[in-house]
Structure formats: C-alpha cells, structure tokens
Design goal:
547 residues, D-Maltodextrin-Binding Protein, domain 2, Alpha-Beta Plaits, five-stranded mixed β-sheet, 23 helices, 17 strands
Amino acid sequence: MEIGNYGLYGKEELEQQMGQNPTPSMQKALTLPKNALVADKFCKHFNLDVQVSVASCMIEIMRITAPDAPYGDQQMKDAFQLIVSSFENLTVKSTRSYAKTVSILETLAKIRLCALMVDLECDGVIIEMFKYFVKAMKTNHSKKVFSHMETIMVFVVEESDDISLKLLSPIFECVRKDNVEVLPIARKLGGKVLAACSAKLKPYLLQALKLKSIGPLSSAQFSNSISDGSRLRVAYQGVSGAYSESAAEKAYPNCEAVPCEQFDTAFELECVRMYIGHWPRPCMNCCSISIWSILQAVERWLVDRAVLPIENSLGGSIHRNYDLLLRHRLHIVGEVKFTVRHCLLANQGVKLEDLKRVLSHPQALAQCENTLTKWGLVREAVDDTAGAAKHVALHKLQDAGAVASSAAGMIYGLNILAQDIQDDCDNVTRFLMLAREPIIPGTDRPFKTSIVFSLEEGPGVLFKALAVFALRQINLTKIESRPLRNQPLRSADDNNSGSTKYFDYLFYVDFEASMANQNAQNALRHLKEFATFLRVLGSYPVDTTMI
C-alpha cells in the first residue's frame, strides 16, 4: 500500500511518544522528516488518507517544537491549510482517517496552536475551519469532539485583536433560527462560543446588527448555560421581584424570566448584552426601565416572549402600552390575570413610625392611596415596584419604605411591615404575552381576539363598526380609544361656528371569539369594508385562572 511505502504511520507513532522541548539530538533527528513533510509529494498528495497522515505528522512536530514554530511563515500557513482540510473527515465517522482527524483536533485544542494561525493572519483558513466544525458537528460525535471544537473557536476569538465580521460569520450563521441546514447540536456549539466570548463580541455584534449582515438569531443560543430549547426566555420590565416576573412565570412555568433594564449606554449596546446571553446585573445607580426595550428585545430575536401589563382593575388601562402594541410588529399570544398583593417593605430594624416617605410605581402608589394617606407617608414615584425595594435596600434607607411584592422583600432582605395594603382586595392586573409570530388559533377552548382600527369621522360610524359584532352575537369585552399620533387635528365645517377641530382616533377592541371561527372572520371582513385601518393584534386563549 502506498501509505505504508511512505512510512508515515511509523513517523506518527514515534512523534507521539516524544515530549515537548526536545534535546538537541532529538531536534536533529526531526530535521529530515520535518523537511520531507512539506514536500509536494506529501502535502499535495491526491490520496486524502495520505494528506491526513501528513497533517497528523505536521501537528505532532508542531507540538514537539512548541512554542517555537518548526517552519517559516509561508510553510506554516501551508501546513495549517493542510491540517484544517483534514477536518473534512469529521463529517463521516466511518472514514478510515476519522480517528486520526480527531487526534489532530485534540492536539490543536490542547496546545493552542491556533494562536499561531491568528498571529500569521490566516483568516481564510480559520473561516474554513469554523465552517468544517459547524458542518461536521453531529450528535454521534463524542463530547470530547464538541469540547475540542468549542475550545479552539473560543481561543481564536479571544486571541484575535481585531476580528472581521467575515471571520465571525460562520458562528453567527450557525445560530440563526431560520437556518434549517444547521443541526441543533451545531447551533448549540455556536451558542456556547458566543456566551463564552460575550465581552469580546459585544462591539462586533452591534456592528453586525447595524450593517444587517446577520439574520435573525435564536435567543436560546445566547444563554450562558445552553438548554435543550424547551425553556423560553421571557423578558419583563423591571428587576427581580417585579410583578411582571411573577406573571411571566405563571404563563410559562419553566421559562427563564429575563429582567430588562435601560442603562445610560446606547440602547443598541444594551440589546447586544442580551444578544450574547450576558445579561448584566441590574443597574446599581438607578431604576431607569423601559418597556420599549423589552419589545425591541423580542423583535430582534433576543428573547422569545415579552410580558406587557395592559390594564388593572383599580388603575384602569395603561395607555402608553396600548400605543406600544401598535408601534411594534409583535403578536399577542396569551394573557395572564394576576392578583396583586402589595406589601410595605423597609430595612431590618425600621418601624412604621420611622418612615416619612414611601417609594413605588405610580400605579402601586395609587392603589394604596388611602392606606398611605392614613399613615401620613409622602409618596415618591419610581419606575418599578421591585426597583423601589432594591433602592431602599441598597442605600439602607432608614426613613423610607417601598410598596412592592413579598417576593421583592425576600430577594432584597427587607422586612414586611404590612401586607395587603391595597385599598381594594380585588386588585388584578392583566398582562399580555407577546411574540414575533402569532399562534394558530383554535376552537377547543375559549379564545379572545384583540384588534385595532380607525374610522372616518361621521355620525354613527362607530355604532356601525360595533354593529358588525353585535349582528353576529360576538361579545365585546373591552373597547379603548386613543388619539392617532402624528396626525394633525382635522377640520369639519359647522354652520354655527365656521369650523371645528377634532382628533382622529384609534379603537382597540377585545372580543370573545377565535379567528379560527368563521363568524369572527366575517365580522372583520365586514369591518374592513369601511375602516380606514385594521390590524389583528392577536387571537389567543383566555386566562380563566386567577392567582
């Protein structure tokens, strides 16, 4: 056999027995095989098995001579090209050279030879290597192969001073959710690399987002501990202990609830932190929080769902969030009704009579207005109930308390001075669950559909719009009107006063019917005949529980 004639197998065995830092005599003995390996008859041989054997010999010589390179720059580049080409054998375990290729991979990972690739600026070879890894990664490989690939990719990224987006593109591509050619195990590999290199990759991810050079990515890939995909990442407004977090966990009991805050940095950079699974701890200097950012997080494939409070049984509708529903192209996929039980929290040792002021979200303060007035406490509004609790604990305030949940008190080590301090025990907040894609509506259980529409001004036009539901015995559960933003006031002729001004309005309507129901479809088809604008925000199961 030709391979045997070349005697490569014997050379490999001898080289594998040799340690690093060889003696002068051993170095002299290596000179002949070292020079022979770079000859064209070996490194450009037509037989793939011979090429793999040559690559195996070369990487063993590199191991022995490390940290010094055994060849000049150009010969090292050629050697690395041959070594990387051998990784094509990883795609099929049944090939004769598979075990030898795994050994090459292991050596490359263990002695960090890829640092030489980086120093020699072998970007093309590195990109080819990353592509081989993604293509070859299958579940029938051992964990050792996965680990070696991860080690090499992470090391290359961390060692590179200036990374091109082209070099990172194989990693970005393998975690794209819409890339059907990539197996889940390969997507997991890319996700672990991104999570491990999160700090290094932030500016590159931001650049890629701005240039739109990467497609939509699966948020599950950016968790520091990659799951099997069964855990949804659900963004909520606030910090740990917020009522929205409890609503997220009620809707998706096995979810990863993700606190979403807006810091002083540019919003896009905050999104990058979320992109790479490196969620920062909440800001210690402020509680500035943005619901807008959690909706952006879903739109940019940073999380799977978002929780949006939409109305409260005491405080009424949250108008700003209605505006956000229209501004973002997300779909309502569920609702949660959550019973809110407010507590008065304070630092350990602080008594009720020591307090002069209380911090919380404006709605929470309004819901406890009578109780707080009776206690003579000055109310100070902040962005979040749990954020208020955290602020009181962080600054060890002795004259201030917080209105928040008992969970927030436990998380931040605060004492509960009073429970259930809301003025009305029937204090329920309704939350919406938002996603990028709508769910398929069904008829097997009660469904609700939310829509938004606008109408031309005129007598009886709103009556006509609502009649399309009444004629079909469809029950409306909510109607909300909001002025149409960025629209000038319109004029109407009036014989008495010459001209009057009026707003254009949007109407948000919830009705009890699934969009799988023909009756509901006919109603919207009828409404569309005279509505100037109509959009279905979502058709989703009704929450019939209350906790």
